[in-house]
Amino acid sequence: MKTTISYGMVGGDINAFIGKVHRGAIAFEPNTTLVAGCFSRNLEKNLLTAQTYRVPADRTYASYEEMADQESLRPDKIDFVVICTPNNTHYAIAKKFLEKGFNVFCEKPMTWEITEAEELERMAREKDLLFGVAYAYSGYHMVKFAKMLVDEGKLGKIINVNGEYPQEWLIDELSETISKTAKFSGWRADPKVSGISNCTGDIGTHIEHTVSYITGLRVKRLCARTDYFQNDLDLNSNVLLELSNGASGVFWSSQVAIGHMNGLRVRIYGTLGSLEWIQEQPEQLKFTPRGEAPQLYYRGAGYVGGRAAELSRIPGGHIEGHYEAFANMYKTYMTALLKKANGEPLTENDLDFPNATDGVEGVKFLHAVINSGKNDSKWVTV
Ligand SMILES: NC(=O)c1ccc[n+]([C@@H]2O[C@H](COP(=O)([O-])OP(=O)(O)OC[C@H]3O[C@@H](n4cnc5c(N)ncnc54)[C@H](O)[C@@H]3O)[C@@H](O)[C@H]2O)c1
């Protein structure tokens, strides 16, 4: 019986942002080991990262192509690959690893183009491989509890949603006196790397996925106003939308909202009650039943059951945050991998991680927003 998991990583060198979060999150499970990687196209950074994480020299690869080819020939090949490179590379890297028969966990936005995302989704399905997409906010315990309340009918019929993700970190992009190179944005502001969007792709897609996860509804159509402030890509977007059940909603994402760091907040309104969850206070969920006083639920308390309780690691009041949300996503994905390898059937809970279909929806959403914004905010079907 298989009980341990080995994985490889493409991207995520020692100086990169999200790669280390993935590694830390996976390490929450003691039966996992990082054994292979192509952490950077820069040889020095690649080797330094491999040495720091004790990845053997013969499994430190100069390119992702070489990594996929060589790993596929090994009897002890990796169980899955994590892709945490910039947006322009996700499609080619994921395709190569799927072709070689590997399970994939890919950063978002899944691809540049909708057709590319759909192709990866189809390949994973046809090859019976597990494909995860790193929409980690649905890994938070209280987001899972919110979904449970909705599934139990506590909100009644969903009639309106409101999501926002304001950040301030790219406010310098609006400055005419600060030089391009001194600005923070790096590849995110470059259409050749980021694709058609910066802000909406980077953080707007997180709103879309979190709302969709909690409600079980998809965005059906939308109209958007996107703000570029003389930059090549959007830095702010306001989206008016209709969900698959006819409910309406508003999503706002911004990288130029002074006073906000990672201010993801979602509010869901139904005929019987409402929910509010704020990423910067992730252990709380506000639930207001119709005609009653608002109630605050806390992770770790006895009254919080379901997946939120199952995935809790430490007692309530000791805050579980961003790393744990990623870890919950990976724990679920890796449990599914092990069960699958051992021929066990997968339950609904085993599949409770963001998948390729969610990835496709995210790419469709961001294309619809940018398309609408460029066409005088016309309504666009997602
Ligand atoms: N899920 C989330 O919450 C979240 C958060 C941050 C970033 N992201 C996504 O993660 C991805 C990476 O973002 P980041 O901020 O970590 O970027 P980053 O620039 O900090 O890191 C990118 C890494 O990829 C490496 N790289 C680039 N091309 C490569 C290639 N062809 N082969 C091997 N390595 C290569 C770089 O050397 C670097 O190590 C982006 O798609 C971004 O949208 C997601």
Structure description:
This protein is an alpha/beta fold. It folds into two domains: 5-133, NAD(P)-binding Rossmann-like Domain (Rossmann fold, 3-Layer(aba) Sandwich); 139-320 and 361-381, Dihydrodipicolinate Reductase, domain 2 (2-Layer Sandwich), CATH 3.30.360.10. Helices cover 34% and strands 22% of the residues. It contains eleven helices and 14 strands. It has helices spanning 18-26, 43-52, 64-73, 90-99, 114-126, 141-151, 191-194, 199-215, 306-310, 322-341, 356-374; strands at residues 5-11, 32-38, 80-84, 103-106, 131-133, 158-166, 219-227, 236-243, 248-254, 265-270, 273-278, 284-289, 295-298, 380-381. The strands form two sheets. A nine-stranded mixed β-sheet has the order 13-12-11-10-6-9-8-7-14, with helices on one face. The chain has a five-stranded parallel β-sheet with strand order 2-1-3-4-5, with helices on both faces. The chain binds nicotinamide-adenine-dinucleotide (NAD).
Quick take:
By secondary structure, this protein is of the alpha/beta class. 34% of the residues lie in helices and 22% in strands.
